[in-house]
Design brief:
Elements lengths: L1 H10 L8 H32 L5 H19 L2 H20 L5 H21 L8
Length: 131
């Protein structure tokens, strides 16, 4: 729970003192960093699936959800930002409930997903509808 509060403070309160131009510039930077952070694990998972090094339904589920979150984050889709935030919170909670060997990795990944999803929901400019 403290990590979720910290993520909320970093995503929310940290940008309040910036002007609109400063917030837009920071949002572009966070968008680029978030896109890399969210998509590199998906690319590695897809490479493992393609070479046969990773097997099972879990890898396909992760690849599908990871692509939804990563591509949606880069393209600023609100539904994908919500999904990223909810999936991140779920993974963090799941890592605490099931404390296996990957607890720290899943907890950190969940916090990263939660942070980027929350940041996008709070500070990304809404996409304009095509007319």
């Amino acid at each position: 729970m403290p990590s979720m509060v910290t993520a909320w403070m970093l995503a929310g309160a940290n940008n309040l003192k910036l002007s609109h131009v400063g917030r837009s510039k920071r949002s572009r930077t966070v968008q680029a960093i978030g896109g890399v952070v969210l998509l590199i694990p998906v690319l590695l998972s897809l490479a493992g699936l393609a070479t046969g090094g990773v097997q099972g339904a879990g890898a396909y589920v992760y690849a599908a959800l990871g692509l939804l979150c990563g591509v949606g984050f880069v393209l600023k889709f609100r539904l994908a930002l919500w999904a990223t935030c909810v999936i991140g919170a779920g993974v963090s909670i799941g890592s605490i409930l099931d404390q296996g060997m990957l607890m720290a990795a899943l907890w950190l990944a969940g916090i990263a997903y939660f942070y980027f999803g929350l940041y996008g929901l709070l500070w990304f400019e809404k996409r304009k509808l095509a007319s």
